[in-house]
Known about the structure:
Belongs to the HIBADH-related family. The protein is of the alpha/beta class. It has helices at about 15-25, 35-45, 50-55, 70-75, 85-90, 105-115, 130-135, 145-160, 170-200, 205-210, 220, 245-260, 265-280, 290-300, and strands at about 5-10, 25-30, 60-65, 95, 120, 125, 135-140, 160-165. It has 14 helices and 8 strands.
Amino acid sequence: MTVRVAFLGLGHMGAPMARNLAVAGHDVIGFDVSPTARAGAAEGGMPVAETAHEAVAAASVVVTMFQTGRQVIDAYAGTDDGDGLLAAAPAGTLFIDCSTISVEDARAAHGLAEAAGHRALDAPVSGGVVGAENATLAFMVGGSEEDVAAAEPLLSTMGRRVVHCGGPGLGQAAKVCNNMILAASQIVVAEAFVLGERLGLSHQALFDVASNASGQCWALTTNCPVPGPVPTSPANRDYQPGFAGALMAKDLGLAADAIAQTGVDARVGLLARDLYRAFADGAGAGQDFSGIITMIRSGSDDPGGRG
Length: 307
Ligand code: NAD
């Protein structure tokens, strides 16, 4: 049976994800509130609806890929009575939200969908725009076993790894926890290189030791924040992303929300949030997040000037 998929949010991530579904033979109709995004998708050959209602009217799966939790909840529930996606979709539609949003918002979105007689999953991704284009994303999924099984063929068309993390919101929980580990380890690897510099230790010597010792981690061996030891790391191309500082700052804000909600003593995670916020407010918004080494080296929260 052909499953009609409405794909809403045709931005940097959503456009290539929707295209991969269409190329694999799924019946996909796209929609974005931005006329430019709609025109871009239509030029690429994707059927595009003129309104969100038109997109979801005959869908059995609705995928959303927006920026924020507010956008997801407003789109689901509508801002005026009856104008939301939940009211417009056929009963029992599977809503899959791939946006990175807070655990709390994801649970609220699940609740709204279920109250309206639908099914829901939170399915944030890692792998960035390159992963979206090459269909190599990793999906972290929260929701029921049955709904994950129903979504699996679509998710594995857009990515190469699907992990069912547990019930509603736990896909987002896995995403914020992983990115908190990543942020803190990237910061401390950068601090270690700057400390080594001041002590007269070469980048290569520190790398050769730490990458074969207990300091080994992805932030060092793949995303090495100094040029040289790992030729493919963003440090070798002036910190072009990669994963942009602004996105890391956003994800750490979501981690901080979860920390506040649970009362966990996560001081390192909160400090990482503060440092990445300063980095993204300054020169780092569009740089790879490993570029935070420049801020650490300068000893200032605004190494390259604003903008
Ligand atoms: P983007 O801003 O490029 O795309 C979001 C799109 O959603 C925009 O085109 C916007 O017009 C559209 N939109 C917003 N509200 C809408 C609505 N109600 N109906 C239809 N369309 C609507 O953002 P992006 O870079 O594609 O990121 C999307 C999500 O994926 C974010 O939550 C981000 O944190 C996450 N993410 C991004 C990356 C990345 O590298 N860009 C990596 C992993 C996760």
